[in-house]
Design a protein that fits this description.
16 strands; globular; 10% helix
């Protein structure tokens, strides 16, 4: 477990997920550059397995082949504050509440997106599945309703029939 950590100036370059947080409590990441050019096979940041009280502040994050951020698996109290998406995802930039095989019945919640933007000026695209709707303050963020409904159905199906 990673508790009470402050990580600054992080600049990794490849792999599946660039930064994966699992079972983390009270983590602060500030002034980080994470995956600025993409090229990896999964996400820039994967927050999963009941992470709590995690904050990214003044960070630049690029998507890999999937998302800049995926937040799932019952994680809660996650804040993205003045985060810039430097390399957008293919269809979605931030994925909240996707299926998690390790904690399939844990709902993700209390996600705050404060002044989150994309460096290309377009809206940050957010998809919400088995999760509470995020609190969005400022920035340029758009919740994709159709994709969110499709994700909710997918997660429901996985939870009910693919255990």
């Amino acid at each position: 477990q990673l508790t009470g950590a402050v990580i600054e100036s992080l600049t990794p370059t490849s792999y599946d997920d660039i930064l994966k947080l699992s079972h983390c409590i009270n983590v602060r990441l500030t002034h980080c550059v994470i995956n600025p050019n993409g090229g990896n096979r999964e996400d820039g940041v994967d927050i999963m397995r009941n992470c709590r009280d995690v904050a990214f502040s003044e960070c630049d994050v690029g998507a890999g082949a999937k998302y800049a951020f995926t937040i799932k698996g019952g994680s809660s109290d996650i804040m993205l504050h003045r985060v810039a998406i430097t390399r957008p995802g293919r269809w979605v930039d931030i994925d909240i509440g996707n299926y998690s095989s390790t904690v399939p019945d844990a709902k993700t919640g209390r996600i705050m997106l404060i002044s989150v933007t994309r460096t290309d000026g377009k809206p940050v695209r957010v998809r919400v599945g088995f999760a509470e709707d995020p609190l969005i303050v400022g920035g340029n963020v758009k919740v994709l309703r159709c994709q969110s409904l499709a994700l909710k159905l997918y997660v429901w199906f996985r939870r009910k029939f693919w255990r």
